[in-house]
Amino acid sequence: MKLLLLVLLAIAAMPAAAALKVFATVPEWGALAREIGGDRVQVFTATTALQDAHHVDARPSLIARARSADLLIATGADLEVGWLPVVQRESGNPRIQSGQPGYFEAAQHVRLLDVPARLDRADGDVHAAGNPHIQTDPRNVLAVGEGLAARMAQLDPANAAAYRSGHAAFAERWRTQIKRWEAQAAPLKGVAVVSQHKAWPYLYDWLGMREVAALEPKPGVEPSLAHLALVRDQAATSRPRMVIRAAYNSARPAEWFAKEAKVPAVVLPFTVGAPEAADLTALFDTTVQRLLKGLGT
Amino acid sequence: MRSTSLIVLAACGALASIPASAADADLNALREEIAQMKQAYEQRIKALESRLEKAETTVVKAEASATQAQASARQAGARPAPANAFNPEISLILQGRYKDMKEVPERTITGFWPAAGHDHGGGAGEANQRGFSLDHSELAFGANIDPWWRGQLMLGVRDDEVEVEEAWVQTLGIGHGIGLKGGRIRSGIGYLNEQHAHAWDFADAPLMYTVMFGEHASYAQDGVQLKWVAPTETFIELGAEFGRGAEFPGTDRNKNGSNNGAIFAHVGGDLDASNNWRAGVSYLRTRARDREARFEDVGGLEAQGVFDGDSRTWLADFVWKWAPEGNAKYQNFKLQGEWFQRKEKGTLDCLDEDAVGNACDPLAVGASVLSDYKTRQSGWYLQGVYQFTPNWRAGVRYDRLDSGDRDFGINAANLVVDSYHPSRSSVMADYSWSEFSRLRLQYAHDKSMQGITDNQVTLQYIMSLGAHGTHKF
Fold first, then answer.
1. What is the spatial distance between Cα A274 and Cα B254, in angstroms, rounded to a whole number?
2. For A18-116+123-180, which CATH superfamily applies?
3. Chain B residue with minimum CA distance to A83
4. B327 with A82: Cβ contact below 8 A
5. Which long-range contacts (CB under 8 A, 24 or more apart) does B150-157 make?
6. Contacts of B79 in chain A (CB under 8 A)
7. Distance from A195 to chain B by nearest Cα, in Å?
8. What is the pTM of this model?
9. Which of A60, A93, A125 sits opposite B278 (nearest CB)?
10. Which residues neighbour A163 within 8 Å (Cβ) at sequence distance 6 or greater?
11. Nearest-angstrom CA–CA distance, B236 and A284
């Protein structure tokens, strides 16, 4: 009898196992899928906040996870170009191939910034479609969430209503939070900053900040001493208030510049999973707080 | 708009010139006609204006690069992409080197059947060129064909030769973890076999790959490959291949059906965020007919040996990668090793093609001696490469082979049967300006030829341009 109960319990627990399997290339989209789908989705995230999503290997574990995924969420705009195509092809999973409903590209749902006027690798590691670091603007998260919820509903019609209501609740909460962040971040408007890597155009666009220089001489090229000195000299006239880097960037260039130019070095979480950025809300809470702290307010 | 007002003026003039006595109906008809004319002109002007506008935007568009136009078209969602948007991804690999090494008239690895056959000019192959030389350049094309297929072509280009290194189509739509590839494919056996030379961590292939498969250091064939990825969190991949099997250690036998078979299994996973690994075992079975190589007879004269029979190769491989928190950009380490054993069984025909009167044909009358042939040989390599800044890497490698058991039957009395342990130690350091360019300096202490110690220094560049490359683990 006890055995029968156990079996029945196991069967009752089955739908949980049949959750929509999501493979997210970066933590922010994994977190977003969880916000929308709750426990109806089972999320695997390929990279962490301490990794550069452009420089990871097509690890065997990624192929194994992609093999059973129902939905692959990528940023797109060539961010994962060095490894994701291999993972897709080697997975033997037709659902997540490019062009299929199970392949979702976040960059398709927002307006991309920094679209290069010309394509030449002499300009560094440029992305043809534009800057792929779209998640640093919460309005982009909202736009991606809308597309993602619709896609999840399409892939898992049985739970479509739940995804829609999950998204509606998230969107409402998110809009209020955006207003709150914008109010908090008002002093940041027009503030001049230096970035280590050109990872923040969307953040600056959102908060009205000005990037006066980047420590990387070209996108993806490590800062050289000569270039650092040049940026320091320019700082005398451009007067940046802080230097900003992501948690996964090397600390040394930003710290060197901070010391030389006598401005604070601000480490932003960049994505979910970095210290003090356990979820999407915390990501922007921490981002705004650290920027304000850097400003000295 | 100026032209519009001109028409209106002209129309007014026309109206004014109409005699006042004209009937109202005529007047109305005329007015209508003029109004129609005006409308028609306005439409034509509008059309001209929009054409002009279009022409202007086309000029602007043409100035921007094709890809940018493609990107903006995708974002706007309305503008059509140019026809060449469907061109395949193209990438080009440029490789060249300077190599300083001993002059050896005929480079072979002592104790092993030379994969190059019985070519006399040991210097013909690019691996034997001293001084400045161009390695072969690689040209790769790839694209999705339709929702069900993907295709790829990889050409090796060198003087007087364009070689099809790989040309295959791959399914995208079977599902259940099944992947099917057909065409000319690099076999999935071992770890290094699928990698092209530009992806190697050293300037040359491990000795074991050279003795196993010859100068290309890779087993490729025209055939089909079936792979299956298990639905588990640990990576488990099983694969099988069948095909023409024309490459060494087999020979082209131009027959129906399959000439060989290969099976392999790979497992892999993450120990934690910093440590990833993959390991595998593979088996290749093929047949050779009239596989010829040059030998030395017991008297020091040249003889030719022709092998007919079965060749079976076992391979074991592993690779382990470490990067702090999985962030490989600033620092990472890669340890990789492979081992092989090959057993061959059949007959060896000892010939005297040049009629020099060797031990198999002392009277130089075209006689030959047929014997049994049975070998069991093995080898391995182990290498570690450490990237200690975003730009610099350094690595060491050790190669060792064992000529093992070589049973030539009665031909053992006619031919020299070398028994040797070829070995080589290599160190390298390379600098990468970006993920697309690399310059490498390598030193190797090479004892792969009995009685010769060759200290080799190689300076090599590897550059890739075009579509962003993707590499396997």
1. 60
2. Nitrogenase molybdenum iron protein domain (3.40.50.1980)
3. B470
4. no
5. B150/A89, B151/B88, B154/B196
6. none
7. 18
8. 0.84
9. A60
10. A36, A37, A40, A149, A152, A153, A156
11. 39
pLDDT of residue A2: 56
- Asked if residues A104 and A148 have their Cβ atoms less than 8 Å apart, the reply is yes
d(CA A71, CA A77): 18
How far, CA to CA in Å, does B98 sit from each of B102, B104, B471? 13, 17, 26
Of the listed ranges A14-28, A38-52, A271-285, B14-28, the one predicted with least confidence: B14-28
| DSSP code per residue over B247-258 | STTS-----SS-
pLDDT at B199: 93
A12, pLDDT greater than 60: no
Query: At residue B426, what are phi and psi to the nearest 5 degrees?
Result: -135, 145
**Model confidence over B248-298: pLDDT tens digits?**
999 998 888 888 999 999 999 999 999 999 999 999 999 999 999 999 999
Give residues 159 to 218 of A whose Cβ lies within 8 Å of B.
Answer: none
Contact between B177 and A88 under an 8 Å Cβ cutoff? The reply is no
Q: Does domain A186-295 have CATH number 3.30.420.10?
A: no
How large is the average pLDDT for residues B433-437? 90
In residues, how long is chain B? Answer: 473
Residue A224 near chain B (CB below 8 Å): no
Contact A97 B147 (CB under 8 A): yes
pLDDT tens figures, B305-359: 999 999 999 999 999 999 999 999 889 999 999 999 999 999 999 999 999 999 9
Residues of chain A with CATH 3.40.50.1980: 18-116+123-180, 186-295
Closest partner CB to B227 (pick from A61, A92, A112)? A92
The reply to whether B317 touches chain A by the CB within 8 Å rule is no
- Domain B92-466: CATH architecture, name and number where available: Beta Barrel (2.40)
Return the amino acid letter for B266. H
Cβ-nearest to B68 among A99, A115, A248:
A115
Residues of chain A with C-beta less than 8 angstroms from the C-beta of B437: none
> Does B393 contact chain A (CB < 8 Å)?
no
Contact A50 B172 (CB under 8 A): no
CA A196 → CA A21, A258, A268, B245, B473, distances in Å? 36, 11, 11, 53, 29
Pairing of the two strands A242-246 and A265-268: parallel
Q: Dmax over Cα atoms in chain A, in whole Å? A: 82
Say yes or no to pLDDT of A255 above 60. Answer: yes
To the nearest whole Å, the CA of B273 is away from the closest chain A CA by 8
Q: Distance (Å, rounded) from C-alpha B142 to C-alpha B136?
A: 19
Count of CB atoms within 10 A of residue B444's CB?
23
pLDDT at B215 over 70: yes
Under 8 Å between Cβ of A164 and A154: no
| Listed residue (B386, B378, B373, B381) closest to B333, CA to CA | B386
A262-268 mean pLDDT: 95
A-chain CB neighbours of B92 within 8 Å are none
CA-CA distance, B320 to B473, in Å (whole number)?
10
> CA A51 to CA A248: how far, in whole Å?
6
A65–B276 CB contact, under 8 Å: no
Note the ipTM here.
0.88
